[in-house]
Write a structure and sequence with these properties.
heterodimer; A: 89 residues; alpha+beta; 6-stranded antiparallel β-sheet; globular; B: 772 residues; 7-stranded mixed β-sheet; two-stranded antiparallel sheet
């Protein structure tokens, strides 16, 4: 956390998807892992380049992906890293 | 899979077929099975929540059949329709995001689409139901379907919602990008676009499938071609494996598909596949990530310039509603209130309806009793068949009302929010939020509860939920609890506030919940252990529920219960009747009762004092009740009760209670009436007067040595037994219907009976210790 916080806040920063704040929009950068779980996430549209909005953080959290809302458990999103255009406070 | 029928042509053959105006019919096994060669088949596939079932329902109307594919838990839903003068069979496949089978259940859809199942004709066309508001993700599945080599048609749903959101779709362009696959907008619940859809299907089925270039990058395609050749070499004479399955062999890391490919040494195949994947990883196509990249890349290419949407995602009404409904506090409060309302409705409306059915069945039984001569046949019809049928339809009010409400909640999109809210709680048991409503429904009745588990996609979660649902104290336990609590639990209050009777009631409900939690926890760690599938739950956009859909679903559930479970329930009811009816009392004894009754009846005719008539009437009733009790104690079931007495003795029961428990196997609420018969009160124990007579008879019941039979620990042991036991043949029949196997109802019965016995033992022994 401290490393990310120390980075210049105007740059798009690489952070775990689960750390997005409500209403924050970001672009998926990496979906790490090779198991069935990650593949299912990719099938659902959580692929590199996709735009996600965090609607309600927590577990399960609510995301908006391709205009649709998804409820996903946070531990299943641990391998998803996003670049947020919005500065992280 | 050894007998897999010849697959559809590979790309090469498909290209050749393009040159011919109409492809020659292929000699597939599936075609030979279709009785009428004029009949066409179409399979429906689509993401969950796309309105696929509504499209299916609108096309097939009432001509639907629900069955099971043998060996799996997948429901086989088929329907019929006519296009022009040709008859069509519709196959509704389970909603899915991807055709990536990792289990026999998931393999069904792929096999049906490829025409590889001997029990289902290969489809002449595939109807992809696509949600217009989420084209990217829906096209992922479409890109898989297009690779199957069947003529396809896209039905575009939710176009009204897309329009509302300002999304514009160029349909002609989309069709061209999809290689000429027809794209038909439909609003099935308003019956719009159905004729155009039918016309498109009829046309598509007569044409060769659209040729769409593989979305995969070159290195992957090369590996697939190489593996295809490798397999053909090792499966000489056998039908070639469809190209799609060869691709999946490379993509399926679970190894499930490797086991499905016959005629090849599994170890050799595995080595081949692993080395292929290694080469792919080096070439920059890591498996399985390459699939999502390729297919979403393809979808982006298809949609480029086809779809335009407003730049700023607008805050919709649905978003504002969600702010409240998914709020941890307010959302939960509203959820609890909604559930309370739903159950209030079930109890207030179902009760009178059930009484009405009971009265109707009683009237019918009386009418038959009057019309038929006394004897075994009349008893069979009245106590076996009519009682059995009554026992089936009496559940319909609860099923209808519960599914009416659940249908509304599901169709408007709320059910997914409820599952979201409850997920945190249910994960502690190893289940997901989707199990909550089925379990909650089971407090009214386990039958609709078990049927409601169909919303749970994950098989392990669904099975666990089905198996623990009957532990929830359903409304049928209430008569048992009320009778025994009123008779044996003192109406005192702890500290002058907490009524002991109410506390006992709460305790009994808690016993069921705690047991269910424990069993679910244990099942998920033993029988249903396995990798938890990712919990990704779609929260569909809110919409007004369609009355057509809600009513149809409600009737469908009720009808499928009557048809599939009803026969089993009636059959068991007849068997139980025979066990209670035979052997008859020795003639001498039966005659003695009859003569006594005759004498009293003659006296009653002569008497003119109304008090005297009433007194004689009461004596007649008492003798008839004693005769019935005698008969039942003498019956096969009564004797069985005596046989099991050593087993129920540690529970504090005598053989009469044991026999009553045995006789209530078809339905636990029957135990009240059975206790009435066994303790010579007769079957009329309904109402205050009957109940108080039964309660006093129970209080007066004695062991042979004169000790009172019932005490607080005995009453507790009986109640705990009935809280946990599986004494409900209707529930077992529904479990059999939903799991498609007799093994699971057998397992349910065994484990619940064992649990009930242990619970009753504990209740009696601990209770006796405390009382001493």
């Amino acid at each position: 956390m401290s490393v990310i916080a120390a980075m210049p806040s105007t740059e798009a920063e690489l952070i775990p998807l689960t750390l997005l704040r409500p209403g924050q929009v970001a672009r998926v950068d990496q979906v790490l892992g090779g198991g069935a779980l990650v593949h299912r996430l990719r099938e659902m549209g959580l692929r590199r380049g996709a735009e996600v909005e965090m609607i309600r953080p927590g577990s399960p959290c609510i995301l908006r992906l391709d205009g649709h809302k998804l409820g996903v458990r946070s531990d299943e999103l641990s391998g998803v890293l996003v670049r947020s255009g919005v500065p992280v406070a | 899979m050894a007998a897999a029928p010849p697959a559809r042509p590979t790309d090469r053959v498909r290209l050749a077929a393009l040159l011919l105006p109409i492809p020659p019919p292929e000699p597939t096994l599936a075609m030979a099975i279709a009785a009428d060669p004029q009949t066409r088949t179409v399979a429906l596939i689509g993401n969950p929540n796309t309105g696929k079932s509504t499209v299916f329902g609108a096309l097939s109307g009432v001509q639907q059949r629900v069955g099971n594919y043998p060996g799996v838990t997948v429901e086989k839903k088929t329907g019929r329709m006519t296009i022009g003068d040709r008859r069509w069979t519709l196959i509704d496949l389970p909603g899915t995001y991807s055709l990536a089978p990792r289990s026999p259940d998931e393999m069904v859809a792929v096999d049906v689409l490829l025409g590889r199942r001997a029990d289902t004709p290969g489809p002449d066309a595939v109807l992809c139901v696509v949600d217009a508001t989420n084209l990217e993700r829906n096209l992922y599945l479409v890109s898989q379907v297009l690779e199957l080599g069947r003529p396809a048609v896209v039905a575009l749903t939710m176009t009204d919602l897309a329009e509302e959101r300002g999304v514009a779709i160029d349909l002609d362009r989309l069709r061209d990008r999809l290689g000429g696959v027809p794209v038909v907008p439909v609003q099935a619940h308003r019956r719009k676009g159905l004729d155009a859809l039918k016309a498109a299907l009829a046309e598509a089925a007569d044409r060769p499938p659209a040729v769409v270039e593989s979305p995969f990058p070159e290195p992957f395609r090369e590996e697939v071609a190489a593996l295809e050749a490798w397999l053909a070499e090792r499966r000489p004479g056998g039908p070639p494996l469809p190209r799609y399955l060869v691709e999946r062999l490379l993509l399926d890391l679970s190894g499930y598909l490797e086991g499905v490919v016959a005629q090849v040494d599994p170890a050799e195949l595995h080595d081949r596949v692993v080395s292929s994947r290694a080469r792919l990883a080096e070439a920059g196509c890591p498996v399985p990530a390459v699939e999502a990249m390729a297919r979403y890349g393809w979808a982006a290419g298809v949609l480029d310039g086809v779809v335009s949407r407003p730049d700023q995602p607008r805050m919709t009404t649905g978003d504002r509603v969600d702010r409240v409904l998914t709020h941890r506090v307010w959302g939960t409060v509203i959820f609890v209130a909604l559930m309370a309302m739903m159950f209030q409705a079930v109890f207030t409306w179902a009760g009178p309806a059930m009484d009405l059915i009971d009265a109707g069945v009683g009237w019918l039984a009386e009418a038959v009793e009057g019309a038929m001569a006394e004897g075994a046949l009349r008893s069979l019809v009245v106590d076996g068949v009519i009682a059995g049928v009554g026992g089936v339809i009496v559940f319909l009010p609860q099923i209808f009302i519960l599914f009416f409400f659940l249908g509304i909640l599901e169709d408007c999109g709320y059910l997914a929010r409820a599952a979201y809210l409850m997920d945190r709680l249910m994960t502690r048991l190893g289940l997901s939020g989707k199990s909550f409503i089925p379990l909650l429904s089971s407090f009214a009745c386990a039958i609709p509860g078990v049927m409601a588990t169909r919303v749970i996609e994950d098989r392990r979660d669904r099975m666990t939920t089905i198996l623990v649902a009957p532990l929830m104290s359903c409304s049928a336990r209430l008569p048992v609890y009320t009778l025994l609590i009123a008779a044996f639990i003192p109406p005192a209050a702890i500290g002058g506030v907490l009524s002991v009777q109410a506390a006992t009631m709460v305790g009994l409900y808690s016993v069921g919940v705690v047991a269910a939690a424990g069993v679910a926890w244990a099942l998920k760690r033993t029988v249903f252990r396995g990798p938890t599938p990712p919990f990704v739950m779609e929260l569909p956009a809110y919409k007004w529920p369609s009355p057509r859909v809600v009513i149809f679903r409600m009737l469908d559930r009720g009808w499928s219960f009557v048809r599939r479970a009803g026969t089993i329930i009636v059959a068991v009811s007849v068997v139980m009747w025979a066990l209670l009816y035979y052997p008859r009392l020795p003639e001498r004894e039966a005659d003695r009762y009859e003569q006594e009754v005759f004498a009293l009846e003659a006296a009653r005719e002569r008497a003119d004092d109304p008090d005297r008539v009433a007194e004689l009437q009461a004596r007649i009733a008492a003798i008839e009740a004693r005769a019935l009790g005698e008969q039942q104690r003498n019956s096969l079931l009564g004797r069985a009760g005596r046989m099991i007495e050593p087993a129920v003795r540690p529970l504090g029961w005598d053989w009469r209670i044991g026999a009553a428990a045995l006789a209530s196997f078809p339905a636990r609420e029957v135990v009240v009436a059975t206790l009435g018969v066994v303790f010579d009160i007769g079957t009329d124990v309904e109402g205050e007067e009957g109940a108080s007579r039964l309660q006093s008879a129970l209080r007066e019941a004695r062991w042979p040595d004169g000790r009172p039979l019932f005490s607080v620990p005995v009453a507790l042991s009986i109640m705990v037994f009935f809280a946990l036991c599986a004494q409900c043949v209707s529930t077992l029949a529904v479990i059999r219907r939903e799991t498609n196997s007799w093994a699971w109802p057998a397992f349910s019965f065994a484990y619940m009976t064992a649990l009930a016995y242990l619970g009753a033992l504990l209740a009696y022994q601990l209770g006796s210790l405390l009382a001493a």
